[in-house]
Amino acid sequence: MYVHSNMARVLGQKAVDMCSDKLKWSWRAMIPMTENQHVAACQFEPAVGDVAGNLDTIEQTLVSLPSRVAVAVLPELCVTGYDLDVARDQATSIPGDLTDRLVPLAAEHDVTLIAGLPERDGEQLYNSLVVVDGDGVRDTYRKQHPWGDEADVFATGDGLTTVETRIGTVGLALCYDLNFPEVGLDYSREGCDVLAVSAAWRTSYATDWRLLLRARALDGPYYVVGSNHAGDQRGRDHAGLSLVADPSGTVLSEVSDGVGQAVVEAEQERVEKGRDRNPVRELRGWS
């Protein structure tokens, strides 16, 4: 009886997995694949507590992007600036006031925006990434691994978030999540083509930032898009170095410091070649 029960569970799980895969590919088929398959890692220094000013900066960033960009990744807590007291005061629900002001920007520029902001859900606060396009909020990711004093303010997220876009399946991560290989591997298991990492990464850890982005790309294998703050923000000196790495860990485009964007075409062929070259997903039974 135990063997039969166990087999039933295994067969049941396989059926669920097959159904899930079919649904994923069915949903993918609904996403129009156009020539606008570029992704941008956007870099700037938000002003702490100045939501209106930061939204203006985001709009200027979108204006400066090439029209072929389909997905733009923005830094951690970029809507309010990186300050924990300010995050407490300015956090809103999702959807809410902050996302309501991002949606028109995404619509005007025909882009999927991935942006960091503080989220309030009842009594809990979260350091979150929101995905918005012209139709509204697509999804939300809550940071799983708070850094330092963040744990005194933000609750811990408990799961992955993937979203289907014109550049493929995108997984979401925030800053210190990057230090945990299991987060990247979980997204690999989910079949992500791109991992979007939004951060407020300090200059004192700049070497780690670049190394970890490339390592997660190789772990996938998938594209990794890392968007970081640049400059000083209330005593925090941010590293910049926003970049896009391909599934072999090669950096294809990078911003050193100041305002800028790293823009790359997310080619499915390059993802497939990366997985042929480094077949870790196949050897783990994930493909």
Written overview of the protein:
The chain has 8 helices and 14 strands. The longest helix has 29 residues, at 2-30. A hairpin with a 2-residue loop joins strand 10 and strand 11. The chain has helices at 2-30, 51-64, 84-90, 97-109, 181-189, 206-219, 268-277, 280-283; strands spanning 38-43, 69-73, 112-121, 124-133, 136-142, 162-165, 168-174, 194-199, 223-228, 230-233, 236-239, 243-245, 251-254, 260-265. With 287 residues, the protein is of the alpha/beta class. Helix content is 35%, strand content 29%.
List keywords for this structure.
287 residues, alpha/beta, single chain, disordered N terminus
Helix/strand layout:
Elements: H1 2-30, E1 38-43, H2 51-64, E2 69-73, H3 84-90, H4 97-109, E3 112-121, E4 124-133, E5 136-142, E6 162-165, E7 168-174, H5 181-189, E8 194-199, H6 206-219, E9 223-228, E10 230-233, E11 236-239, E12 243-245, E13 251-254, E14 260-265, H7 268-277, H8 280-283
Widest sheet: strand order? 5-4-3-2-1-14
Low-confidence stretches: 1-34
Structural class estimated from helices and strands: alpha/beta
**How many strand segments?**
14
Shape: globular
The whole-angstrom Rg is 19 Å
Mean pLDDT: 90
Could you tell me how far the N terminus lies from the C terminus, measured between alpha carbons in angstroms?
31 Å
Main beta sheet: 6 strands, mixed
Note the run of SSEs as H and E.
Answer: HEHEHHEEEEEHEHEEEEEEHH
Portion of residues in beta strands equals: 25-35%
Question: Counting H and I runs of at least 4 residues, what is the number of helices?
Answer: 8
